[in-house]
Amino acid sequence: MIYFDNSATTFPSDRVREAVNNMMKDEFSGNPGSLHKLGVAADKAYNDTRISVAGLLGASDSEIIFTSCATESANTAIRGYMSRNKRAGNRIISTRTEHKASLECLSLLEKSGYDVVYLPVEKDGKPVLSELEKALSGEKTALLCFTLVNNETGSILPLEEIISVRNKISPDTKIYLDAVQALGKMPVDLHKMNVDMCSFSGHKIHSLKGTGVLYLKNGTRIDPLILGGGQQGNMRSGTQSLLLAKVFEVALEEALETMDASHKNAEEINGYLRKELEARNAKILSPDDALPYVLNVSFDGFESETMLHCLEIYDIFVSTVSACSSKAKKVSYVLLESGVDRKTAANAVRLSFSRYNTMEEAQDFIKAVDDIYDRYAVLR
Ligand code: PLP
What we know:
Blueprint (H helix, E strand, L loop, with lengths): L1 E2 L10 H10 L13 H21 L6 E4 L2 H15 L6 E5 L4 H12 L3 E5 L9 H9 L3 E7 L11 H11 L4 E5 L11 H4 L3 E5 L10 E5 L25 H16 L1 H21 L3 E2 L9 E5 L5 H10 L2 E2 L15 H5 L4 H5 L1 E5 L6 H18 L4
Parallel strand pairs: 1-11, 3-4, 3-5, 5-6, 6-7
Antiparallel strand pairs: 2-8, 7-8, 9-10, 10-12
Helix pairs in contact: 1-8, 2-8, 3-4, 5-6, 9-13
The protein binds pyridoxal-5'-phosphate.
Pyridoxal-5'-phosphate (PLP) binds next to helix 3.
């Protein structure tokens, strides 16, 4: 099997699998809210895990909330901030190339009367900064909402430039950042990055599905999305899962340990595939300076889904548009927003890599593409 769909999800690493087994022990199975010694031990282990995750992310432990996924983190941050801070302004600035986890929150807020300004993006997927300046200079803006690495193209946000524009024009405007596809693949140091809220997902870094994190900078007030027993400082009620927090920590630790070697490996695979695919008249849609873990490519004469299923015959797995919306058979809104014409976008396939992929797999992928053109091009 060649799994080039790591932006959709990754498989749990061996270390994560081991940690799952270990956490099945009775001694880790108490309720962190219980007063007896099993509860106290679970509570301590949970807090130790939070401290460790905070350290790995360059944050303080009081700023880390464990969630079920990045979608929950996004909903908690965006909706929670706007609900709690009614006087911060009526405007939110974002782009239409965000993940649906953000876009659907923004759409809901628009329906309840907020003014959401969607900045245009350049061909490389980066927001047009002069438009950001203009939008920030108008009505009072409560929140900026951006993605550090786009999940469909790998386009990297110019975060420092955005923050400097924000600081110059509207320093009170808060920043929510989706860092799901950046985690473990480029440095993420939250205090240095100077964002106010940030979301992460464990299943993109070889942890389990069901694990997410929300970073909430100290002093940023939000209304919690999930109410109940007041766990996690009242920010996310529900009995804490020590298992899920722990496997997020284990996966993050491993991702950071292997980050440099993994980046080099992804660069090699990406560079090779770009060259070979372009030689076969495929169009590379990821920008040149994209994170090398994502390669969006449009195959001449093959619709996205046809190519996906052809590759599947060779036990090769890729995505069309982002996995959560791919069943709807739509052309990628991210590509269309970035100025790609509909025909090219309709043939786009996303290859996404992890540290487990090899150059050999990349070579086999090219052989499969050649074979597909030889066998099926006449039928298409
Ligand atoms: N943001 C981005 C950029 C993503 O790629 C994804 C998942 O595809 C999400 C958010 C949502 O993550 P989760 O599946 O953890 O809810």
